[in-house]
Design brief:
Radius of gyration: 21 Å
Strand content: 15-25%
Bound molecules: ligand PBG
Largest sheet: 8 strands, parallel, barrel
CATH architecture: Alpha-Beta Barrel
Number of helices: 11
Helix content: 25-40%
Number of domains: 1
Strand order of the largest sheet: 1-4-5-8-9-10-11-12
Oligomer: single chain
CATH topology: TIM Barrel
Distance between the termini: 45 Å
């Protein structure tokens, strides 16, 4: 049988895949260190670098250790870090009072980081859960997570963080109207230059488990406390609704919008990228990171290859910015390429 008939092989896409130089030249999506934000976990103390069980290579760090670590990230060219505090139980209450303490762990960390690395952007988390004795992102009363009462607290929290030097505040709570409320509160307090990165489409996902373990921030199993976050985080079945959230956030003044988690929500990233007039971020969350590490530890998948592929996919879907626990590893690899 002859294989020489070329009638059906006039078009040969493989020509553009033949050698690395051509592949590089026609590559449609690029991942740069400029796209990356590294999420980091804070804990009180000194000299503490406490490994997080389900997140190999991630640590709860005391301020001094984090300041040192941040120097490495800045040297790698990573533009920003997103901070999350692990708060001891005895400082938690139902209204997240510790989140408003200007001398609390979080504002002290922001001040130390900005003093040591003025050019490294600090993205601060605005939500009640790290400080809530109920383990919710808002105030719980009568079995309900209250919206507007929570806004008052979030507004104050954002101002405390801005006063400490946060460059970008990132509300992760999913209360209605919080972007506009925060914008107003920040402007009133003289922080019109502080940007808002909104967790616009944050899903009620099972992928946050390792993060909640790291902060001990899961909803408490108690009478009168909703056992999950489904009354405020989005239903994983919905995509149109993400567009509604995006429209509202843009109207309310969000400077950047975010989809979270990332890898299982690539269609949502694309939808928002197609409609948005602001940059779109995506958060590759703890469970995504843990799954990749677990599979690699078992020898089922290659860690480096999958980490890179997962991030390229998130970029291809349309994310301009990616929050990822792989940030430092990837930045190192991008530099040595
Ligand atoms: C809550 C918050 C969560 C994450 C960041 N901020 C999880 C939650 O809703 O409990 C998850 C991040 C991750 O899993 O990496 N405000």
């Amino acid at each position: 049988m002859s294989h020489s008939h070329a009638w059906n092989t006039f078009h040969r896409p493989r020509r553009l895949r033949r050698v690395d130089a051509i592949r590089r030249m026609v590559r449609e999506t690029r991942l740069s260190v400029d796209n990356l934000i590294a999420p980091l976990f804070l804990v009180e103390g000194e000299g503490i670098k406490d490994p997080i069980g389900a997140m190999p290579g991630q640590f709860r760090m005391s301020i001094d250790v984090m300041v040192e670590h941040a120097a490495d990230l800045a040297d790698l060219g990573i533009p920003g870090i997103a901070l999350f505090p692990a708060v001891p139980d005895d400082l938690k209450d139902t209204v997240g009072t510790e989140g408003l303490n200007p001398e609390g762990l979080f504002p002290r960390a922001i001040r130390a980081l900005k003093a040591a690395h003025p050019d490294l952007l600090v993205v601060s988390d605005v939500a009640l859960d790290p400080y809530s004795s109920d383990g919710h992102d808002g105030v719980v009363e009568g079995g309900v997570v209250l919206n507007d009462q929570t806004l008052d607290i979030l507004g104050k929290m954002a101002v405390v963080q801005a006063q400490a030097g946060a460059d970008i505040v990132a509300p992760s709570d999913m209360m209605d109207g919080r972007v506009g409320f925060l914008r107003h509160a920040l402007d009133e307090a003289g922080f019109s230059h502080v940007a808002i990165l909104s967790y616009t489409a944050k899903y009620a996902s099972a992928l946050y488990g390792p993060f909640r373990d790291a902060l001990d921030s899961a909803p408490r199993k108690r009478e009168g406390i909703p056992e999950d976050k489904q009354t405020y985080q989005m239903d994983p079945a919905n995509a149109m609704e993400a567009q509604r959230e995006a429209s509202l956030d843009q109207l309310e003044g969000a400077d950047m919008i975010m989809v979270k988690p990332a890898g299982m929500y690539l269609d949502v990233i694309r939808r928002l990228k197609d409609m948005a007039e602001v940059p779109v971020a995506a958060y590759q969350v703890s469970g995504e990171y843990s799954m990749i590490h677990a599979a690699a530890e078992k020898g089922y998948l290659s860690l480096d290859a999958i980490a890179m592929e997962s991030l390229i996919a998130i970029r291809r879907a349309g994310a301009d910015i990616i929050l990822t626990y792989f940030a430092a590893d990837i930045a190192r690899r991008l530099r040595s390429q």
